[in-house]
Structure formats: structure tokens, C-alpha cells
């Protein structure tokens, strides 16, 4: 059995290591993705969220845990590049919905292949058993970190 102080220390070490690895992964991906696609990782996250059904800036911000002003700035850039369009919601003329254009869909499709090539080039030598074990552990942690449903959600 692990005592409380040891458990707290391990939890802190887990957070520090995860942040360090996250910075390393982003560093490996960001410049090559921007060079290949003209979009950085945050812009690609916004594009992915829209493709996955987040159709308002607020829902994109919530899904990707990005500040709303950042999402607004990124959406404006993506609209300017012809990747996303803003469509007025016929049920509420004050609200604009977001959707990918055909160019946005094509870009999003190219992203996965490009990112996979970059990941393979930087991290392809990692032992498969370590990658599998880390992935399983991170998925379990992610599931443990999901907030409990609110009363309103459980009644729906």
C-alpha cells in the first residue's frame, strides 16, 4: 500500500512528466506541420474540433480547452484561408455556426498522414510494447479524470 505523501509525490511527478512530454511532442510536430500544411497545432486542433461536430466557437473552445478569444482569432484565420465558413443559424440569427469547406475537409484529411509521417520520423524507434503500455495507462487516466455527470445530465 502506498502512503499518502508517496502517492502525492508520484502524482506530482506524473503531471510534470506529462507536461514535459507534451512540450516535446508539440515541438516535434508544430514546425513541420506548419511547413507542410500552413497551419500550426492549435489551428489544426480547431479544424479537427469543427470536423468532429463542434459548430460554434464556444463549443470548439470547450472541446479543445482553449480560451474563447484564441478560438475566435484562429477561426477568423481559417475563414480567411477558405478552410472554414461561418453560417448564420436560421433559428437564431445572432448565432453563427461553423463548418468546414471542401478545402478544409481536404486539409484535415492530409493532416493525419502528414502528422503520422512526422511522428514516425521523430519517435518511430520507440519500443512498441512501451508505446502500447503508455497508451493504455494514459487512456485509463483520462477516463478517471472525466468529471462526474451533473444532476441535469443524469436526468436527461
TrEMBL record:
Pfam families for the chain: MarR_2 (PF12802)
PROSITE patterns named in the record: HTH_MARR_2
All copies of domain HTH marR-type, residue ranges: 11-143
Gene3D superfamilies given in the database record: Winged helix-like DNA-binding domain superfamily/Winged helix DNA-binding domain (1.10.10.10)
Name of this protein: Transcriptional regulator
Organism in which the protein naturally occurs: Deinococcus aetherius
